[in-house]
Amino acid sequence: MDKVKVNDLWDAFIEIHNEFKCTLIPESYYFCDNKRDADNLAELVKNKVKTATSSLYVFYELDNEDLPKVDELSIITDFEGNAVAIIQNKRVDILRFSEVTEKLASKEGEGDRSLSYWRRVHKEFFIKYLQKYDLEFDENIKIVYEEFDILFTIDDYKRKKSYKLDYKKLLLSIIVCSILLLFSCHHTQNNRIFTTSFEDIKEFDTFYITPQNHLNTSFHELTEVNVHSGRYAHRGWITGSNSGSTAIVNNNHRAYPTVQLKNLSEGSFKTPCYISLWVWLDMELHKNEAGEDDWFSFATFTDDESDDWKRTILVNLNADGIVHLQHTTAQGENATIFQTSDIVFPQKKWVELKIYLDFGEDAYAKVWQDGKLVSYAAIGNISNKLSQAHFGLYCSPRVSAGEVFNDDLEIKEVESE
């Protein structure tokens, strides 16, 4: 395995992932207590076969160490301390040894990935460790099970380094990116199209992305866990509630990339536009007699090219499970021409949302859910351009848990409805 210093791998990683530039370099460690196993497991992580690990709960008590946390970063090394991969915890559970399932064992990627293999090798290792402290093993002993995402490996490092050193490869990369840009935003009969299936974070290089761990409760990533098409989808999730928003403090949950059409070479799109998006949502929304009901926003649109987003049109889900247009005739006004009251948004399945925006004379907007019209409203006090939009996780602060997946987004200029 190539020898890469921990600091060098981290520096290369944050050059690409700007959201971690202000993060202190994380702890580095290797698996197991011997070179053969440590190097083999590091290789499994590098090859993205091993995406979980487990250790004895008593380890942390005896060594007076803090338990691992969700979203915590770590650098995995081989036995000699050479950096191999940067990982981020997405799940930390305290389980009994006897509660580990075939599925959980398989994610550790070891041996034949069976539960029987996992039980045998972990039992041997745990017994060996416990004997040092005159402790005994039993099937109900507590373990710490960590599942993680692999964010960056030495293979990524080598590719990045080779592009820096090889001018021809760099030139080829620029050409390929230019071709992809042409496909993402091109002319068809003078009408432009922006598309993304959330396959690569580079698709949003010139756009603002909300910081990870917003208010310590909102997170997002590109994931293979649940996709509509392709390899990846965008996932946003919540780990706890926030304090309520006030007139001067906005505590809404937010975890999304923006689509800043204004930053493209030809600037903001001109309406009318059709927007289509596939969404998968799992989130409970509650009514609140003492204050604001819970809500979730699938999409936010603005004609404002500044960071203020002063005038917005939203496609929201209310606590009754109904999709509706928000801020229609003016900011804060919600008058509609038609609004369904009986077509409920189905959760835990992929749903297509299609939105028509016309900000010209006699401006209006429509929303369809799986082909059925659910909301239709006149739009006022807005200029005829679509400058920015965001899709992903955006909801009221009191929501305490839930996740949303977005895939196959298209924004298209058209002549008319």
Short summary:
This protein is of the alpha+beta class and 417 residues long. The protein is built from seven helices and 22 strands.
Description:
The mean pLDDT is 91. This protein is globular. The chain folds into two domains: 6-154, Sulfate adenylyltransferase, CATH 3.10.400; 182-413, Jelly Rolls (Sandwich), CATH 2.60.120.200. It is built from seven helices and 22 strands. The protein is α+β, with helices and mostly antiparallel strands and 417 residues long. 20% of the residues lie in helices and 32% in strands. It has helices at 6-16, 35-46, 57-62, 102-107, 115-131, 154-165, 167-184; strands at residues 28-29, 52-56, 73-77, 83-96, 142-153, 185-188, 191-196, 218-223, 233-238, 253-255, 258-259, 273-282, 296-302, 312-317, 323-326, 338-339, 350-358, 364-369, 372-378, 388-391, 393-395, 402-413.
Sketch the major β-sheet: 10 strands, antiparallel
Tell me which CATH architecture of the largest domain applies here: Sandwich
Amino-to-carboxy terminus distance: 58 Å
Question: So how many helices?
Answer: 7
Specify the helix fraction band. Answer: 10-25%
Average pLDDT level: 91
The CATH top-level class label of the largest domain: Mainly Beta
Q: Helix and strand succession?
A: HEHEHEEHHEHHEEEEEEEEEEEEEEEEE
CATH topology-level fold name of the largest domain: Jelly Rolls
Taking pLDDT < 50 over at least 5 consecutive residues as the criterion, the unreliable ranges are none
**What fraction strand?**
25-35%
Tell me the structural class.
alpha+beta
- Which term fits the overall shape? globular
The tally of domains stands at: 2
Count of DSSP strands: 22
User: What integer value in Å does the Rg equal?
Assistant: 25 Å
